[in-house]
Amino acid sequence: MLSRTLAYGTDSRNIYLIFIVTCLACVINGETLTGILAQATWLVVAAIILVVVQAVDRLSVERAASRGRPVGR
After folding, report:
1. CB 47 within 8 A of CB 57
2. Percent of the chain with pLDDT over 70
3. Confidence band (pLDDT; 50, 70, 90) for 27?
4. Taking a C-beta distance cutoff of 8 angstroms, is the pair 39, 25 a contact?
5. Could you write out the DSSP letters of every residue in 3-51?
């Protein structure tokens, strides 16, 4: 038998609450769910680009440091 904690019974209700609040916010703001998903897609794309730029910057700094060149920071 699995042990149940207080948090175990309350976690699943948050999913429905987030969905209801999102739908209510769409109705209040006059947005469609498609519009919100489109904005979320652009947010994910921007986050991925930011991570890639930071990784390239870190790689270039490490290469410059390994060659003995001063890093201009």
Report:
1. no
2. 75
3. confident
4. no
5. ---HHHHHHHHHHHHHHHHHHHHHHHHT--HHHHHHHHHHHHHHHHHHH
pLDDT band for 19, please (50, 70, 90 cuts).
confident
Q: Give the length of the chain.
A: 73
pTM over 0.90: no
Where are the strands (E) in the chain, listed by range?
none
Within 13 Å, how many C-alpha atoms sit on residue 41's CB side? 6
Show the tokens assigned to 64. Answer: 């410059």
What gap in Å lies between CA 34 and CA 18, rounded to an integer?
Answer: 17
Cα gap 28→26, rounded to integer Å = 6
CB 71 within 8 A of CB 64: yes
- List the structure tokens of 39: 């904005």
Could you give the angle at the alpha carbon of 36 between the alpha carbons of 15 and 41, nearest 5°?
95
